[in-house]
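## retry 2 of 3
previous attempt timed out at serialization; input unchanged, resubmitting
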Amino acid sequence: QVQLVESGGGLVRPGGTLRLSCVASGSIWDMDSMYWYRQPPGQQRAFVAGVNGRTRSNQLSHDSVKGRVTASRDPAKGRGYLLMTDLTPADTDVYFCNAQSNTDSFWGQGTQVTVSS
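## retry succeeded, writing output
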């Protein structure tokens, strides 16, 4: 089993920056990829960005977040990060990290991001 704990969310003004963190513990030796999702109330989770450790590539959901969102990971520490800049109210959601191996997928509990003036 793998446990994931997100942190770093909160209230930020438009134009601000947040760095979300995800700390993995437990059987993490084969977790080679980490992704970030967001979930609006009453809707399904949507992919935001992530790092595919197998292909060693960074992935973004779409061009609208390019240049504003950067995912990274530190496998040695079992940590992943999502840096979000130039935030707008449209970025308000609960954000989840997702760690994957070839056979398993685990989720954290989420961290709330609220962008408001």
